Write the structure tokens for this entry.
Amino acid sequence: MIGCPCPLEASQIETLDCEAVLPVVQWLVDRVRVLQDDRRDYEDQRRLNVMNELRLLLERIDKGGANIAVQKLRSLMQSLKNLEMQESEFQSNCNVKTSRLQADVIELEGNIANGCDSKILSDSLDRSFMESLEELNSTKKELAGRCKAVLAVKRQLDDIPSQSELIQYERRFSELYVHIQEKHRQTQKYYGTYNALLEIKELMLKETSLLNSLSSQFRDAITSDAGRMKLINSMEGIVKSSQQKQEKVQLGLLEEQKVSDALKQQYVAAVAEQRHCYTLLKAFREECAENEELRSQSSI
């Protein structure tokens, strides 16, 4: 025998040599016990690994903030299982009652065939019919209530979006957000262009008015000292006004540059946050896949 430390020959088995057969039998018994212990240890280790994985998964769910939704889903699934078990029990009870009623019908048919009293038989039939009718109505009411409860639980389960639906919602909201941002940027650009053109128009109108005024009053003002002084003062006022306008425009330019720098910083931070979100989403999908795999293993 392979692996056995005790030699054994066929002639010893035929002659029932106990001294030669007994050590081999003891070795076989010990070998079977060792194999059983190894298998038991393997099953215990596998069960321990599954429990550890479930514990880690629950910890990750708690960290992700989805513990409430998971608990709600568990309770709903448990309620659905309980209702299904109650429905199966109800069906079995209905089958038992149906068989009992069929036995009663067979008994009544036997009584009719044997020629029992018609009045007693009629009263018995009426009483049985009324009892059966009342029982049927109560059973229908109970069945309707349980069906309503089952539908309510199924509706609650359907209200919880699946992972694919959540991903689609997230994608659609992201696309909508990008579209709204693009429209907002275009609108801001149009408003900025309109305001700039309006300001250019006002400046050109002022310039035209100033040139017309100078053209009409220059000859009259240059002939006298008072007119020349008035013209010089007017020109100095125009220069000061232009300088103030230029300073105001420069201040606006500086503010716009500051806003642009702040927006660039926000953009860089948003890009980093987007990358972080993509990383978290990838990890979440991996955890969901692992969760589904663990559920399939636990159900098996």
